[in-house]
Amino acid sequence: RKHLNCFLSFSVSPPALGLYTVNAVYGDTIIMPCHLEVPDGLMFGKWKYEMPNGSPVFIAFRSSTKKSVQYDDVPDYKDRLSLSENYTLSIKNARISDEKRFVCMLVTEDDVSEEPTIVKVFKQPSQPEILHQADFLETEKLKMLGECVARESYPEGNVTWYKNGKVLQPVEEVVVISLQKIVDKSTGLFTMTSSLQYMPTKEDANAKFACTVTYYGPSGQKTIQSEPVVFDVHYPTEKVTIQVLSQRSTIKEGDNITLKCSGNGNPPPQEFLFYIPGEIEGIRSSDTYVMTDVRRNATGEYKCSLMDKSMMDLTTITVHYLDLQLTPSGEVTKQIGEALPVSCTISSSRNATVFWIKDNIRMRKSPSFSSLQYQDAGNYICETTLQEVEGLQKSKTLKLIVEGKPQIKMTKKTNTNKMSKTIVCHVEGFPKPAVQWTVTGSGSIINKAKETKYVNGRFSSKIVIAPEENVTLTCIAENQLERTVTSLNVSAISIPEYDEPEDRNDDNREKVNDQAKLIVGIVVGLLLAALVAGVVYWLYVKKSKTASKHVDKDLGNIEENKKLEENNHKSEA
């Protein structure tokens, strides 16, 4: 039987004032020993119980001589009784109605002995349940929370309410408890129903409510607890909060802004008024308000309130911006030697970092062009960022083209093997000039020239020749701006020539030009001296021819003329 784990089937208490007590569990078998000593000459034994008015009702008989057992026709005990040889009476399927005073009788010819036994029946109630639970509770309102029901108990139990493990004591207009006990007339079992009316506070959100039933069993007092229940507690909003929902900590132009307004009530408010900079009236919306592609004029103070404007909260939003103006920008073409002012102007919501890049290489300083050179040409990028604002970066590009007419300088030298000469045509200009070599006089074109790499508007075209006689070579450089022609006399291979080196760097170019000017000055001075000496010699020869016609000159003059003539010859040489 299911109750055997909790209780003994019965228990017998020692006589108190001459009475024995048997504690039985409802539905189990009641066993009542006869506590009399079997006397000599025993004829039979009987069991009876006493009615409330004291009248006896006999229920069982056993003869000591015939060993026979007879049970009286009592409807309540039909097929439930069993009387053993030692006169122990057993009653199957214990009922509440079995709570009586039973008497064991042993009869001899001259005496009747009796010993009463009191039967107590106990029934454990079912686990209590909280029924008719409230959908929700409201602060400042006394409301029926639920009913705690414990069924089929005997004797009756006591119901107690708990909140978070602590006993709820009745408090007027706050905690109201009422208990109702109903007896099933057919079984005699009690059903206890305790109702709880409760006025919650905001702190009762998530509180656990439970009830217990305390009852008596054969072994003493016991308690059974219900499953705990949590109720939704409704309370009004006391504070409104506005917040900006964003994946980034900062907002920039072009971003979307989502404002969320919330109240701390339960249930939370579903509608709010949002106040936007520049708008006088509040905008009615759900708990979120979205602004897309915001501009810098969206910077300002944002508010939200309940629909009745009773509560309000505010926040400040800064929309960061970054403007960049590059002058000039795009593709710009200038002539070599010209000046080009360049400016990169920044306007931003915070201090911005600016840097320049030329042909994918970061520059140490901003570009400045007072006299453009070919090496100044390239792709320039002015770039700026707001380091505190993720993704806010601007840049603009200047593509600078430096143009120039072709400039030519020719050089020559005899190679170390003395078998050939190298003639170089140094060319500057942009767009890159096309170079052509010709031989003056014959007009033939030389197609075996080799060109160096075109860097910063400069390159060289080189030919190697072995002329058997003196020749004049012409270098022609031509681009979209102009056609430039320069010629150079080259001696036969048998005459060595030592000209300036072919390759020069830009740093030495000015020094080389100064040396070239000095050499040209010396050559011109020598040519002028030779010219003067020639004129003097011509005058002398003319004078000598005139003097020879006069025969009357003396010999001293002839000798003097000879010496002058020798000196003149030396000067000519």
TrEMBL record:
Q: Which residues form the Ig-like domain?
A: 116-225, 236-315, 337-399, 406-486
Q: Output this protein's name.
A: CD166 antigen
What membrane topology is given? Single-pass type I membrane protein
Where, subcellularly, is it found? Cell membrane; Cell projection, Axon; Cell projection, Dendrite
One biological process GO term for this chain? cell adhesion
Report the GO terms under cellular component: axon; dendrite; plasma membrane
Q: Which keywords does the record carry?
A: Adaptive immunity, Cell adhesion, Cell membrane, Cell projection, Disulfide bond, Glycoprotein, Immunity, Immunoglobulin domain, Membrane, Repeat, Signal, Transmembrane, Transmembrane helix
For this protein, the parts annotated as crossing the membrane are: 518-540
Question: Record keywords: Cytoplasm included?
Answer: no
Entry keyword annotation includes Cell inner membrane: no
Q: Which residues form the signal peptide?
A: 1-18
Gene assigned in the entry: Alcam
Tell me, in one coarse class, where this protein mainly resides.
membrane
